[in-house]
């Protein structure tokens, strides 16, 4: 395995972090507000995770300060760049709190191996923030402290990227289902209507794509089955509501999706569930995955 990947994979196995990880989850559950504030921290109103978007600001300002410091080092009269570099460091410090809060909200629902990596990622960023803060108060070592902070933040940020891409914390876990289910032009036969249990979600498939299918009398509702948040099976969840307002709540972390359009109404998911069009013909259920709601 590539050395860098091995290095970044290591924290996921550090079980000694588990007490800290559990404590961080407990504190988040108690302190972070729920409802619309929690939804905002996850990024649900934007349909995009908030944490990686917010992280752009401290990354951008700290790297900009680093470049100013580099120019100041090799330019006569570079001392004039100290004030703007210090201002950028101050913006980095100010951006840490909202970025960390959004990350903390996402952290709560991660799997234990992901949480261990997230703890190391957060510790690195906390150290970076401390170094940036110290740089604001140091007349002699400001540049050194900013450089150290940005270096640590770079490593912590790379670990965060590894957590997202290698360990799948944050991406949409259902996007591939659209492709597994074919081109969505043709309806597929899901079997006799009478084989579906009344009022209880059931698992059916189009090709390799699992579907969560709900029969209500002669009507059939369906969504793709793999939760966009972290991949739980939605057909094991709870059905609420009636008609166009019928929803399914994910059994793992409570994301609630509307059958009609796949929209996320509650929970940590930010991506809507790819939708499925159904019809009943000659007593058989036909379905096609329409795609991600746009
Ligand atoms: S897997 Fe987390 S809400 Fe569905």
UniProtKB/TrEMBL annotation:
Entry keyword annotation includes Transferase: no
Keyword field contains Metal-binding: yes
Pfam family for this entry, one: Rieske
UniProt cross-references to InterPro entries, sorted A to Z: Rieske_2Fe-2S, Rieske_2Fe-2S_sf
Entry keyword set: 2Fe-2S, Iron, Iron-sulfur, Metal-binding
GO molecular function: 2 iron, 2 sulfur cluster binding; metal ion binding; monooxygenase activity; oxidoreductase activity, acting on paired donors, with incorporation or reduction of molecular oxygen
Domain Rieske: 188-287
SUPFAM superfamilies for the chain: ISP domain
Highest taxon of the lineage: Bacteria
Protein name stated in the entry: Nitrite reductase/ring-hydroxylating ferredoxin subunit
Organism: Kineococcus rhizosphaerae
Source lineage: Bacteria, Bacillati, Actinomycetota, Actinomycetes, Kineosporiales
């Amino acid at each position: 395995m590539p050395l860098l990947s091995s290095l970044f994979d290591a924290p996921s196995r550090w079980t000694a972090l588990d007490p800290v990880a559990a404590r961080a989850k407990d504190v988040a559950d108690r302190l972070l507000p729920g409802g619309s504030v929690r939804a905002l921290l996850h990024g649900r109103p934007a349909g995009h995770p908030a944490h990686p978007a917010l992280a752009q600001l401290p990354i951008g300002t700290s790297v900009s300060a680093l470049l100013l410091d580099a120019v100041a080092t090799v330019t006569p009269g570079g001392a004039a760049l100290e004030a703007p570099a210090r201002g950028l460091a101050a913006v980095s410090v100010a951006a840490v709190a909202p970025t960390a809060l959004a990350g903390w909200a996402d952290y709560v629902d991660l799997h234990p191996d992901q949480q261990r990596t997230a703890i190391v990622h957060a510790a690195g960023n906390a150290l970076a923030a401390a170094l940036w803060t110290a740089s604001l108060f140091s007349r002699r070592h400001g540049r050194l402290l900013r450089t150290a902070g940005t270096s640590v933040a770079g490593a912590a940020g790379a670990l965060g990227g590894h957590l997202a891409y290698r360990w799948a914390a944050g991406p949409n876990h259902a996007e591939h289902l659209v492709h597994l289910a074919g081109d969505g032009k043709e309806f597929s036969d899901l079997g006799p209507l009478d084989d579906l249990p009344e009022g209880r979600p059931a698992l059916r498939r189009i090709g390799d794509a699992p579907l969560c299918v709900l029969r209500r009398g002669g009507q059939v509702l369906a969504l793709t089955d793999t939760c966009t948040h972290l991949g739980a099976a939605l057909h094991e969840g709870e059905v609420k509501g009636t008609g166009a307002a019928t929803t399914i709540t994910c059994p793992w972390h409570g994301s609630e999706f509307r059958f009609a359009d796949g929209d996320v109404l509650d929970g940590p998911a930010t991506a809507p569930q790819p939708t499925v069009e159904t019809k009943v013909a000659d007593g058989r259920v036909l379905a096609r995955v329409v795609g991600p709601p746009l």
